[in-house]
Amino acid sequence: MFKFEIIENSSEKWTEIVNKSSTYDFHHTAYFHKIDTLFDSKLLVFSFQESFIALPIVIRPIDGTDYFDITSVYGYAGPIYNFEENYDETELIVFFKNSFIDFCKEQNIVSVFSRLHPLIDQESIIETLGEIVDLNKTVSIDLNQFAEVQRKEYRKSLKSDLSQLRRKDIMVREASNKEEVDAFIEIYYETMDRVSAASSYYFSKEYFYNFLNNDDFTSKLLVAIKEDKVIAGAIFTITDKIIQYHLAGTTEDYIRDTPMKLILDEARLFGNTTKAESLHLGGGVGGHDDDSLFRFKSGFSKDFKQFSVWKYIVDQKIYDELSKEKAKSNFFPLYRS
């Protein structure tokens, strides 16, 4: 029998469902939905016996109206699922689509926007509901390969840089005390200042402490040390199959040395000791070689993944009414532009 459940963020069942998924990332967890948004978040679960499709959502009110829209947390979200062996998921996908449409109409949802996960096959779940728009490429390292095979994909100049960094006696280890965590936080703030980041990127110190010690997923802070001083660091999250490069920073004094290269190399070597199948570095601004961040990451691997977003207008009439004063653009939903 098909079943549709709405799981609240406070329920332990959210975590149970996520952990049963064939592949998921920390962006799908209840913890991340608690810290990333001030709006109401829910996990919609569509199931048949032990097979299920789960969609984490954030519901936002549309100011001045009785309507709402759905969005996703920042990062890589979208549906997750688990299909029992030899189960034909076709009927469950149809049930998901019909039930989701009914839910949206009952809740006065006008539109749906979600960032999708480059490492999870989600298109077959949501196709025919609106459109999937391809944006940029991301970089992933295949942890199923032997370490020497992974390293063969490194750009030649990267291999040379790594050798030089090691000769400079820069070492990488997991942060082992509060002083090293605090040093990284200050370096992260310094990095955000340097790139003129938006205020939303300036997380509180408590955010970092809690993130590194949450119960929903494992996270590790790797720091680069030079003469007993933290000069760079990066937080990596670890779920069942995915290690994700998250927040990072390098102090101004050592920016030219690019110790982050050494940190990512050590993260890869650590990843090879886990059950994870991918170390996902993410993308850049445009996902092309003329994008310096993407070029930096692509020096580690040519295993590029497609980052896409999902756009779905539930009620075209209301959407057009809300958008009528807005200039035409690719922004979605247009009425929030």
From TrEMBL:
Q: Which Gene3D superfamilies match?
A: 3.40.630.30
Keywords (A to Z) from UniProt: Acyltransferase, Cell shape, Cell wall biogenesis/degradation, Peptidoglycan synthesis, Transferase
Entries under PROSITE patterns matching the protein? FEMABX (PS51191)
| Molecular function per GO | aminoacyltransferase activity
Q: Does the keyword Lipid metabolism apply?
A: no
What InterPro entries does the record point to? Answer: Acyl_CoA_acyltransferase, FEMABX, PG_Glycine_Bridge_Synth
The record's section on SUPFAM superfamilies has: Acyl-CoA N-acyltransferases (Nat)
Q: Name one GO biological process term.
A: cell wall organization
Record-linked PANTHER family: LIPID II:GLYCINE GLYCYLTRANSFERASE
Q: Which family, according to the similarity comment?
A: Belongs to the FemABX family.
User: What is the protein's given name?
Assistant: Peptidogalycan biosysnthesis/recognition
Give the species this sequence originates from.
Answer: Myroides guanonis
